[in-house]
C-alpha cells in the first residue's frame, strides 16, 4: 500500500560532514515499509526544484520513519532543514530472504542495509559498512554492534580501504548491497551475481514509473527496468550497471 502524508520532522541529527538523519512522524507509512523500499519527498517552499527526491528508508518506529539526507544541492538542503515534509511511500520492492545474508553498504547506501539488519537480525551473518571517513554519530549503536564491520578510506576507524577489500564469496550466503555504482560493479566481479542483490540509488523523479528517468538496462533481451516500480532491488545478473 502507498500513502500520501504530511509529516512533521521530529528529530534532526548531524550524521557526518554532508549528511543528516531526519525522523518523520507519519500515520501509516512506517507500518508497511520493508528494507530496500523508499519514500519520495517533495521539495518544500514552492516548486523550485520541481521534482521530488527519493530516499531509502533507514529505519521505522511505531509512529515514524528515518531517512539519511545527503546535502548535495538546493533541493536536498531544503529537505534537510524543513520542519514538515510532504512524502509518498513506501515505494518499490524490498529485499526478501529467509536465508543467511551478508549485507554491504557504502556512503548513503547504508540506509536500506541498516534497516534490513534492524528488522531481520536473525538472518544476518555480518554487515560491512564503508565510509570516506568515520561518521560523527554512532546512530542507535549500529557501528559498535559485534556483527558490524566498519571500513574507512582514510583509516579513521575500523579497517582501512574499501568494503570490497573485505567482502569474500560464500556460496551458502545471500548478499545484499547498496552504495555507489563503482562499489556495486566491484562487488559484481567478486560475488556470484545470482547470489547478489542490489538496491539501486537511481534518481527517481516520480517514483511511480511514469517519467522513465530511472530506467536501467536489462542483461537479457531488449528493454529496461523501471527502478522505481520494478526495483529498486534487483538481482545482480538481471541488470547492467
**Content-based structural category:** alpha/beta
Number of domains: 2
The total count of helices amounts to: 5
CATH topology of the largest domain: Rossmann fold
CATH class type of the largest domain: Alpha Beta
Helix content: 10-25%
Going across the major beta sheet, what is the strand order? 10-9-8-7-11-12-15
User: Any idea what the shape is?
Assistant: globular
Strand content: 35-45%
Can you give the mean pLDDT?
Answer: 92
Second rung of CATH, namely the architecture of the largest domain: 3-Layer(aba) Sandwich
Number of strands: 15
**Rg:** 17 Å
* Major sheet size, sense and barrel closure: 7 strands, mixed
Residue ranges: pLDDT <50 for 5 or more in a row? Answer: none
**CATH superfamily placement of the largest domain:** Nucleotide-binding domain of ferredoxin-NADP reductase (FNR) module
What is the H/E order?
Answer: EEHEEEHEEHEEEEHEEEHE
Distance between the termini: 29 Å
Show the helix and strand layout.
Elements: E1 3-16, E2 19-25, H1 29-32, E3 38-41, E4 53-61, E5 64-70, H2 74-81, E6 84-91, E7 101-106, H3 110-119, E8 124-131, E9 148-152, E10 159-160, E11 174-178, H4 181-190, E12 196-199, E13 215-217, E14 224-226, H5 227-230, E15 233-235
Parallel strand pairs: 7-8, 7-11, 8-9, 9-10, 11-12
Antiparallel strand pairs: 1-2, 1-6, 2-5, 3-4, 3-6, 4-5, 12-15, 13-14
How does this structure look, described?
The structure is a single chain. This protein is an alpha/beta fold. The protein folds into 2 domains: 3-91, Translation factors (Elongation Factor Tu (Ef-tu), domain 3), CATH 2.40.30; 101-238, Rossmann fold (3-Layer(aba) Sandwich), CATH 3.40.50.80. Helices cover 15% and strands 37% of the residues. The chain contains 5 helices and 15 strands. The chain has a 7-stranded mixed sheet, with helices on both faces. Strands 1-2-5-4-3-6 form a 6-stranded antiparallel beta barrel. Strand 11, helix 4 (181-190) and strand 12 form a beta-alpha-beta unit. The longest helix is centred in the middle third of the chain and has 10 residues, at 110-119. It is globular. The mean pLDDT is 92.
